[in-house]
Amino acid sequence: MTLNFTLLMGVFVIYTAMLFLLSWFTSRKADDSAFFKAGNKAPWFIVAYGMIGTSISGVTFISVPGQVFTDNFYYMPMILGFVVGYAIIALVLVPLYFRLKVTSIYSYLEQRFGFFSYKTGSAFFILSRVLGAAVRVYVVVLVLFMFIPKEMNVPFWVVASIFMALIFLYTRKGGIKTIIWTDTLQTTFMVTAVVVTIYAVSKELGFGLGEMFGNIRDAGYTKMVNWDWSASRNIVKQFVGGTFVAVAMTGLDQEMMQKTISIDGAKAARKSMLTLGGTMVIINYIFLLLGAVLALYVSKHGGLAGMGLEKTDQIFVSVATEHLGSIAIAMIFAVGLISAAYPSAAGALVSLTTAWCVDFAGFKHRADLINDEAKRKRIRNRTHSIFTLIFIAIIVILHLISNDAVIVLVYKIASYTYGPLLGLFFFGILTRCQVHDRAIPYIAIASPIICFFIQQYVFDFGFSLLIVNGVLTFFGMWLFKKR
Length: 483
Description:
Helices cover 77% and strands 0% of the residues. It is an all-alpha fold. 53% of the residues are buried.
């Protein structure tokens, strides 16, 4: 391989050292306010820029370019749906969270419906974020593991443990304040890696900028519209699904909203969210361009079989590190990959710690904790450690069972676990009805189960299954409303 183990480790160590240095600067004199909400002083443009890296993650970095080889640009309508979703978040959810002055966004459900709704919402977030973030991190850990020489006999679980331990160490003190600033560094490196790779592959194929676009178009990779209703990539399913995926996975997600409510004021937070929506279209289009250029390269070299590949997820890794023959490109790819991985795991750890401490450990309600900062810190650190161990366990299990394109797996998980959150929040926002609070956990569990059977035996809704899940939760709450 062009990118050998020693070189990869050098890049990894230097990059990680940069993160720890930035973490040290941002976590000095950090307290609960800094860990949970960055002291409500986060600049809106820094949050918007850094959230690009969190939204994209290692899954997009590896899987989206590879998918173009088989699915063209059919992912793009989903991204356009994201823009509508981010607008809904900016105009509806952000003002709500600021008005209620929440630390955990699920405390809205307690004020609106009651104790059981509140705990159900937070529990579904914890389940969603643990599974979703673990899948994202698994992709990157797997790639890092591939570069370790076989003769070293290093088990996969050791690589996963070291990676998660580093993330634990640089986030344990500064929390969300550290995450906001390290995300900007990671976003920059990740986008740079994609742009440089596009240039390098195009040059290898002998294309200038105009020729590159012409060849991509002639090969049919720029097709965005699929009108086949039976296909999961149908344009309507993609666009509508993208809208609700954005609302659920960003607007109803503690990790993403924790950064947003750390901004000083609702007006600036709305501006940050709308900026994120527009920027995401540009960034994801660049990722699809990379995928199209890689697809041309693969086709020229005999397809997947001709390059000795089994999955489309392997295309970007293989071309950047083996086939271009450039140490510089291989190193830039490594930095981009590591940059894509850190935000997912780091942000997830902080938000999960926040959700547990505020929603279940009682940081805002227990008299023995409110005035005892040392005790709160002990519980926070212990919670942070436990979630790190849970991540390691899930990543190892995924390594044993994974056989699906990872980007699809992430959205499958989201369709089942974020659907009840969608129903809960929008029932609260769109109606004035009260619900029998004790019925909420049963409704939230029943909806994903019903969706599973619908998806398996009735109709393939694709990513729009999230909407069906939310509607079922909404309807269940309507059945159990108080008269």
